[in-house]
Design a protein that fits this description.
The complex is a heterodimer of chains A (about 80) and B (about 425). In chain A, about 30% of the residues lie in helices and about 30% in strands. Chain A is of the alpha+beta class and about 80 residues long. In chain A, strand 3 and strand 4 form a beta hairpin. The mean pLDDT of chain A is about 85. Chain B has a single domain, classed as Cytochrome C Oxidase, Chain A. Chain B contains 13 helices and no strands. Chain B starts with 15 loop residues before the first helix and ends in a 6-residue tail after the last helix. Classes of the chains: A alpha+beta (about 80), B mainly alpha (about 425).
Chain lengths: ~80, ~425
Amino acid sequence: MKDPAGEIVLDARGLEPPEPMERVLQALALLRPGQTIRLLLHREPFPLYPLLAQRGYGHATRRDADGSYVILIHPLATEAG
Amino acid sequence: MSQGAGLSFEQAPPFSVPLRFLLTAPLFLAAAGGLVAFHPEALASRWTAPALALTHALTLGFLAMVMLGALMQMLPVVAGATLPAPRALAAITHVGLTLGTLALLAGFLFADALAWLAALGLLATALGVFLVASAAALMRAVASDTVRGIRLAWVGLAATAGLGVALAASRAGWTTLPDVAAAIDAHALVGLLGWVLLLVIAVAYQVVPMFQLTPPYPPRLARWLAAVLAAALLLRAGAILLPPGGVALIDGVLAAGVLVFALATLRLQAQRRRRLADVTLDYWRIAMASLVAAVMAWGAARAWPAWAGHDAYPLLLGVLFLGGFAVSVVNGMLYKIVPFLAWFHLQAQLQARAGSIPTMKEMISQRAMRGQFRLHVAACLLLAGALAWPPLAVPGGVAMAASALWLAANLASAVRRFRAFGGRWA
């Protein structure tokens, strides 16, 4: 349903913690209605999930063949509506 | 992928719980430097009163202070093992360890019976309470190589504390031990290798790959190294029961284990993904190089009995292991732990929009950390040099104290930023 223009791609692979988390929070501040974030990371960001939930965002995580992770982040209201 | 799978900051204790330990520790490091500056004879023989006070200012006042504080943060977050009553636990452990260490230093320096009594009561309470509380948490913890290593280090801490209490009671004249020299050897060996080294190894499995972006430790090494070292220590501590050749064999196993850990860590760090300068990484490298140097000094003592019997030999091992290895690792980790917690609690409390609070890297000036690192390395070199040329002891002690105070100021700057941006303690 989402066109690529509605997506902010964040490649945080190889960044030292908590830089990936800092960049996600930065991107959330820039997010416009209908937009989602696609986060690429070298490990699964367990500490990020409760932060997203607190701020009203959901996520879907998938592990790529190369061992890196793709995390799709979206506002929970968008999913409900 | 058990490593890190349980990482959860919902379990994190309030900032004030670990922070009080992390900010107190550098003051004991500064006191240790001051001891060397005012009592340079501390570096003449390990048996002088100032040398014993110096050792315990470093091991209890600095190393144990940071390690216990960091474990109170780490056990809930990394192992999913919540500690019972974290605020009360932190208060009792911190006050007991701080005052108990001061009393112990007074006991060594002034041979005062009241100081020994206070040291014994305070340290036994602080460490006893921490050991009981952390045992409860460690039993419930999600098993991983890190948790298994911390469990073994827990046994090392318990054994070191038990032997320490017995030795203190015997020094104060309340009891007589059958073999004081064997008890002192076991206390030192189990404290340095069984507690300090095993804890650093267990924590390294987690933090070296995570923060230095290296490949993980080889699984077989991570699975067995701590257990092999712990088994060798157990045998070594009961050395009286071993056949004559047994002690040499066990010592060889211990030295090989130390070497394997140091070289494996240096190798991983050489393979890291991003080659940016990082003070903590440099602290770890100095630490690993010091471990290698300590093993070489030990090997030289096996080859040349004259060196093994020299007063400078145990002191060189002490400078390399305590100053070069343990203080370096802990100092380097403080530069990750304090800025990370300041940043983490700030964003959690304020639900902050990015840009409105400093990033973790902005919490402490990079230049200030680099300068403090150089001063620490200079202090280690001067103290090692003082073993060959005693006039270097005073500048070495001064450099160590100055480096510790600079560390304290750097950590305080992160806390000031935390407060300035509206961070709260509760």
